[in-house]
Every structure is written in C-alpha cells, then in structure tokens.
Design brief:
Low-confidence stretches: none
Radius of gyration: 21 Å
Shape: elongated
Structural class: alpha/beta
Helix content: 25-40%
Order of helices and strands: EEHHEEHEEEEHEHEHEEHEHEE
Number of helices: 8
Number of strands: 15
Mean pLDDT: 94
Strand order of the largest sheet: 11-10-9-12-13-15-14
Length: 295
C-alpha cells in the first residue's frame, strides 16, 4: 500500500481484521531469502508508475525457485516492466503478473523459468505446482505429515483409495507408488491437470456442493481427506452412512475437525489415533492427522 504520510510504499502483511498494511522490514515466518526482499520491494513499488494501484504481492517457493506474483489494477508501462525484469535478475526471483482474476495469472520474467516443485524423498516424488495452487507452507514438516498419513493409511496392493480435496496430489503421488488405485478429487482444475497415471482417476468436483454419495463411497477401501479450514461437514455426514471402513482425516483447523469427528462418532466410527503436527511456525495454529475406523 502506498501511504505518503508514512514515507511511501508499505510492504508487509495486512493487520488482523483490517485492510491496513503492517510496516515491516523483515518477517520470521518467511524463508530468510524472501524476508530479505521486503526492503528492496518497497523501493521497487515506490518507483512504479502507479504504486497505489498495486495492492498485493503473493509469494510461492518451491525447490530452488521463488515466485513473486504481482496483482496490478492498471496496465504496466514499459518502464514498469523493465524495473520488474531488473529486480528479477538482480534477486534471482520469477515474476508472475495478475491484471484481473485468477485466470489472468501468467509468467512474466524470466520467460523460460521452470515451474515450482517440491520433493517427497521418502516416496521418490517431485511434485510440480503452479504459483496459485495450494501447497503446505512448510515443506520440511509436510514430509513428516505425509509419512504419518501414509503410515495410518497402510495401503495394501489392489486397494481402491479416495483422496478428497487432493490439491496438486501430495497424498495421491505417495499412494500411487504402493500398487493401489486412486480416485483423486478437487475443485481446482489447474491442480488436477498435472495428475496423470494409469491407476489414477482425477475428477474435478466441488465436494462442499457435491460430496461423494452413499452409492459411490462403498467402492473405496480407504478414504483420505485434507479439506480447507471450513472442514468437510457435508462429506462426513455421508461417510457416517456409507460403510467405508477407514478414514484418514488431515485438518488445519481443530474446531472443524472436532465438529466432523463428532459426526463420525455418532455415525459409528471410532477415533483410533490423533497426531498434532507443528506445521505453522511462529503461530498458534496446528495441523491434525486422525484415523477413524468403523466399529
């Protein structure tokens, strides 16, 4: 945000329940190399032709690559574009631009930049993702989370497993190395586009509006789900009537997990184990992994 009374461009996170931008020069939540970009980003924004029309910069890090996605409400000038190119070359970052909605996001510079990716060494996987796709914020802890979930799933050859709210396929990728068939489901078409395998069925579906039905669920031996903070109330209400024997539930919100766990308990499921994963460093938030079996 460009605020003349505070010396020009402010670059930081929005304050809690507010549109104000906190004045920051560093951030302990960000990777150090991204935190160090805050001061030069201030200078960059201040020098742009319309700094008050650039409300947001998103950050995505994968492997050795760092993407900055600039939301701009007015067309950039040639000088603006030159400044972005020079910034990218100087700091080793990749610029994406978003002039309007999410469908307008595109790579800007360098034009031949590789896609972002992250590795799951335990499963011999490198997953490629787009800067606007959801990935877990802490790649190292995410590897622990996947290991835990796979240990709870205990996939056996020949099983058919549903991965709901699958995103770019973290659990799906790990499962496909276990000689099982996977049905991966998410509403994000971009994420699903990268999921291809002979034993994989990928389906675009809004599970809040169209959860898997009682007729569909008996075809699966196990279900793993990792919904957003809202949880999966609509889906677990159907689980409770479906007869699926095992459900592994990954959650980033203890309150919606507790609500959904109660629905499953009333429906005849028992919570066998629960693990807390400290995914969100420097915050009070935590990730949960629970496994439920039908009594």
């Amino acid at each position: 945000r460009h605020v003349a009374s505070k010396g020009g461009a402010l670059v930081g996170f929005r304050e809690k329940h507010s549109s104000y931008v906190a004045l920051m020069d560093s951030c302990a939540v960000l990777p150090p190399h991204v935190s160090s970009l805050i001061p030069p980003l201030k200078s960059l924004v201040e020098g742009m032709s319309q700094p008050d029309r650039m409300p947001q910069i998103e950050v995505a890090v994968g492997g050795s690559r760092t993407v900055l996605l600039l939301r701009h409400l007015e067309p950039l000038t040639g000088v603006d574009m030159d400044r972005l190119r020079q910034f990218a070359d100087r700091h080793g970052v990749i610029w994406y631009l978003q002039p309007k909605g999410l469908d307008t996001v595109s790579l800007f510079h360098p034009p031949d930049a590789d896609m972002l990716s992250y590795r799951l060494p335990d499963f011999g996987l490198e997953l490629v993702f787009h800067p606007t796709e959801f990935t877990q914020v802490n790649h190292g802890v995410n590897r622990m989370l996947v290991r835990r979930a796979m240990a709870l799933l205990q996939p056996r050859p020949g099983e058919r497993i549903a991965d709901l709210f699958c995103g770019c396929g973290t659990f799906t990728g790990a499962l496909l190395g276990q000689e099982v068939e996977v049905y991966a489901c998410d509403s994000d078409a971009v994420a699903l586009a990268g999921l291809k395998h002979p034993k994989l069925t990928a389906a675009r579906r809004n599970l809040f509006k169209e959860p898997l039905s009682i007729k569909e669920l008996p075809g699966f031996d196990v279900v793993v789900l990792d919904p957003p903070r809202a949880g999966a109330k609509e889906q677990v209400e159907i689980f409770a009537e479906s007869g699926v024997m095992k459900i592994v539930y990954v959650s980033c919100n203890p309150s919606t997990f507790a609500r959904d766990a109660k629905i499953l308990a009333v429906g005849g499921y028992r919570l066998l184990s629960l693990a807390l994963v400290d995914q969100f460093v420097w915050s009070a938030h935590t990730e949960i992994v629970g496994v439920f079996t039908l009594i």
